[in-house]
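Protein modeling request. Please complete all fields; requests missing the sequence field cannot be processed.
Requester role: graduate student
Desired output: 3D structure, token encoding
Chains: 1
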Amino acid sequence: KSHFPDVKYIQNNKNLGFSKAVNKGFKYVESDYICLLNPDTIVSDDTFRILMNYLEFNNHVGIVGPKILNANGSLQVSSKRSFPSLLSSVFKLLGLSKIFPKSKIYSKYNLTYLDEDEIHQVDSVSGACMMFSANVKTKIGLFDEIFFMYSEDLDYCYRCKKTGHDVIYNPNARIMHFKGQSSRLAPYDMVNIFYSSMHLFFKKHKKDFASWELASPLVYILINCRK
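Delivered output (227 residues):
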């Protein structure tokens, strides 16, 4: 507060969860662009400029996300994802996506077969760092507050694409994300919240995909087994 007196700083009395906190912040936005950024991150000097310029010169793009690195410099696979199909969800829950990371069949969910240093149109980027314009945010709306934490970014990207906008992974912009540091300090069962959010995502959107409706019992069983 003392170093940045012009910044609107919102102190919540309790942990509202990711979606509710973001929505609360949305009320104060007066800028043309919005960037969601996790606190356990290190941002390169040009990250915001690269993401903003990409949106400015590509009007068809709704959301853009950077290449997210782990502390050891490796790619954080959640940087780019597909929406979970029946098979990709099963392969992920069974661990096959980790065993065969370069397979287009087994690793479709996290798209690890794509070149991590090239720009790609994807289904979803990570909520750890995503940027979009205020105009696009108006079209998509608020984050769905049924998600306390996890899957809210997947849901937001899904709704973005339903408005006709693209979601882009742009590795020219980079951040480092010390994944799990925020949740490690949270007084919640984060494992349970993570898999419960997957339940919520499937339940919310399964009517859009016939295979989800038919196979939802199997998916729920696998989610519970992994949990």
